[in-house]
Amino acid sequence: MPSFNVAPYIRECMDSVLAQTLTDIEIIVADADSTDGTREILEEYARNDARVTILTDDKKSSGYANNKAMDHAAGEYIGIVETDDYIVPDMYEKLYAYAEKYKAEIVKADYDSFTAIQGKRIYVTHNLLGEKKKYYQVLNPRKNKFVFEAEMYNWAGIYRRDFLKEYEIRHQETPGASYQDNGFWFQAFAFATRVVFIHESYYRYRKDNPNSSINNRKKVFCMCDEYDFAK
What we know:
The chain is an alpha/beta fold. Strands 4, 5, 6, 7, 8 and 9 form a 6-stranded mixed beta sheet that branches. Strands 1-2-3 form a 3-stranded parallel beta sheet, sandwiched between helices. The longest helix is centred in the middle third of the chain and has 12 residues, at 91-102. Helix 1 (10-18) links the parallel strand 1 (2-3) and strand 2. Helix content is 30%, strand content 23%. It contains 7 helices and 9 strands. The protein has helices at 10-18, 38-48, 62-72, 91-102, 161-166, 181-191, 222-230; strands spanning 2-3, 27-31, 52-56, 77-79, 86-87, 106-117, 120-126, 157-160, 195-206.
């Protein structure tokens, strides 16, 4: 979980992760020396739950934060949660069950984006694949190239840790949160041979954080840097 100055959102995010029905998990937050009280809130959670570990992202790069947390992880699968978002209680229990059922390297699910309008949240469900028949089956991206047309967000799924380690799949460590999903996502799909998509929505993606990189027009060309990195 990469973190930087998300005090208005961090409690909802952390509460959703701690409430997972799959309880045998480790929660690793890499915080970039937040100055708005986020770090203090995280330390409170760490004191109250032994599953929470706080690392320091001294590069102030979400890619570096994710890499550092992945290096620290000991679990069988890796999941990423952005700290201004939240997840439904059975997300990781369901994704892990599907991963075990299909012996998958990657399991990805649909998700909901949300924004607040006059104090009321509006949710929109996003389907990663257009056709329902493409879900719930093992796909090899080398043969089923349509998977590269799916949305690239890393947080919508889980990744087998030994698979990531074997192929040295990493995030680019550019400053800030500059679309580092893309290089990681492309590498993961390029090396994977067993990918499963789930036609269920578990992740809740916030679109109304004014500090989010997706709202920063100056960062749009970071996408080009990501594909250079992947190449």
